[in-house]
Amino acid sequence: MFGGISMPVPAQNSCIREYIKNNQGSYILPALESHFDNCYHQLFNIANTMPSGQSIIMYSLSMMPKEKKLDMLLSICNERQISFTFVLEAFESKPNFENLIYELEALDMHKYISNYEDIKPFFNLD
Questions:
Q1: Number of neighbouring beta carbons within 10 Å of residue 73
Q2: What is the pLDDT of residue 70?
Q3: Least C-beta-crowded within 10 Å: which of 6, 44, 55, 70?
Q4: What is the pTM of this model?
């Protein structure tokens, strides 16, 4: 489960493979994380060992770590000039990850909003 949905791993890999094919990249079978809450061993291993200047392609933004682990990961990736691409959201990070952090914060806020009527008072709509 991620972001409130469940997507079989073969389907995720198929989407990633198609994205890479359409962008003339090289597909490397992704490492799978252990299924433990807040477990990102493989992601950190990839960030530390892949060639600088490459992109980590993931299925969804909602798969990213939170808080301290996110800060550590982005620090490693920034130092090594590694970017991120998320296939489901059709999103690519920019240098310094400002747009990635903004999207993650927006994604996190979205789970607290049940519907439009809940947020309508915060906008100046008549």
A1: 21
A2: 93
A3: 6
A4: 0.78
Give me the domains of the chain, ranges plus CATH numbers.
Answer: 9-113 (3.40.50.1390)
Q: Which of 39-53, 65-79, 83-97, 103-117 has the lowest mean pLDDT?
A: 103-117
Is the Cα dihedral 19, 63, 97, 52 positive or negative? negative
Two tokens, residue 73: 């990961």
User: pLDDT category, 81, cuts 50, 70, 90?
Assistant: very high
What is the Cα–Cα distance from 78 to 73, expressed in whole angstroms? 8
* Token pair belonging to 85: 């691409």
Write the CA distances from 117 to 91, 113, 120, 122, integer angstroms.
28, 9, 5, 10
Sheet holding 55-58, edge to edge: 55-58, 83-86, 91-92
Q: Do the beta carbons of residue 92 and residue 106 sit within 8 Å?
A: no
